[in-house]
Amino acid sequence: MRAFITGAAGFAGSHLVDYLLARTDWEIYTFVWEKESTENLPAHARLHLAYGDVCRADSVTAAIRTARPDYVFHLAAIASVPAAWSDPTHTIVTNISGQINLLQAILNAGLSPRILIVGSADEYGLVEPRDLPVREETPFRPNNPYAVSKITQDMLGYQYFLSYGLPIVRVRPFNHIGPRQRESFVVAAFAKQIAEAEAGLQPPVIRVGNLETQRDFSDVRDIVRGYYLAITRGEPGEVYNMASECAISIRQVLESLLALSRLPLKVETDPTRLRPSDVPVLVGDARKFREHTGWCTEIPLSQTLRDIMAYWRGHVTKSKAGG
Questions:
Q1: Which of 15, 64, 167, 259 has the least CB density, counted as fewest CB within 10 Å?
Q2: Mind listing the pLDDT tens digit for each residue in 235-255?
Q3: Which residues pair with 168 in a beta bridge?
């Protein structure tokens, strides 16, 4: 069996590569953005790298014709909400055109692999209290450009299933965190600041945004296990939430990380870290996915946070030595 992964060098993508190499005997063909570092990808006889840009149809077509996959995991996207606010056109064009290029390349190659389209809980947007926990039928109320791009990816996946019969499964993962996540995301931002303060690279001050929002956090390693179950057991044409089904405030996450710190730290609000249109509470209902595949989260948040701190301490030490 052959799997093809776009965005394979990214946060979730690299963890998915690790999972598939450890748990399957598949040949793994990865599509890596030509400007992306591959430091998170292992050297392995079953791992094949192709470089390109999902926005260029020719490079996607060439990679698909080489891989001829049985399974396609489409993870490549601009996934940062702040980046989408600063340049909405780039986010929307990249995320939508990249997926169209991929699906057209599959059709033009005469292939019909099982395909996973990764959406986002951000699609639900301004969730009202009566909507909680969020189910797949909850109306979309997108409140940022990234959410609009993910809704379009979601609906394109459904349209290609209906129009061409491609066996496409869609998922909407809620917040997932873990080692390797970029510091533009809140938990990684906290952990990096703590690690840098411990290393003497910044004052013992953690700058934060809104700490009162509550989110549904899962470990990325649970999420990629879910991606595997979705593509192998999911029903084509269906969409599934992936969530821990537990809301926790950003303040609680910060306090847990501060408890792991090796020195006392001060917390200060940074206005530049405050987002417009922030949703107070977002928690998902994953019953549909659980009943269909048996998936649920397994890694406790406390373990995830310890692993994140270990990652950032190692990363900061390596950077400090290199500098």
A1: 259
A2: 999 999 999 999 999 999 999
A3: 115
